[in-house]
Amino acid sequence: MVQRSGDDPPPPRPKSGRPRLSARDWADAALAAMREGGLAAVAVEPLAARLGTTKGSFYWHFTGRDALIEAALERWAETETETPIADLEEETGSDPELRLRRLFAEAVRSAAEDPLEVALLATADDPRVAAVLERVTERRIAYVARQFELAGFPGPEARRRGLLAYSVYLGHTQLGHAVPASLPGGAELDHYLDRALDLLLMR
């Protein structure tokens, strides 16, 4: 848990003139470390060096490493699930099939470029990671299932297709990092993803 409340005054500006770091800055740095080395890479002193600050800045915002990890995982859930969903809703209007196609294509491409999700899946035995993964997974599947329902599929069938679509996404993500040569690229990837959605939307 973050140590300070939002009503507390900000920490004094460092004498060096560097801008003050926020809890979000630390959480983002922790996520960057996870991308490179998994959960084990989150350590206060190396992160302070990465951010060009001291441990004092860290302890202004957090009670310890566990609190930072929890904040970083919440940040991941926000930036990789809630924000994309909100953006998608704004960009695609009331067309659920367009939302599904846009979501599928953007999620697959983003996951192929970012190793963080694979790193988190690899540490799913950690209770902190497991709890966030479970919540995020259910949120994503429920959202995708809702789009299938809006596209005209009955609730139980929409749920099955949502789960299948998410399974395809996860499988593609794992393959993209483990054996990238096995997957199409460029225009062929666009065709591949469109065809996958054609099959998922088939009645």
Automatic annotation (TrEMBL):
Residues 20-80 form the HTH tetR-type domain. Residues 1-22 are annotated as: Disordered. Keywords: DNA-binding. The keyword DNA-binding applies. Signal peptide: none annotated. GO terms for molecular function: DNA-binding transcription factor activity; transcription cis-regulatory region binding. Residues 43-62 bind DNA. It comes from the Bacteria. This is AcrR family transcriptional regulator. It comes from Streptomyces griseomycini.
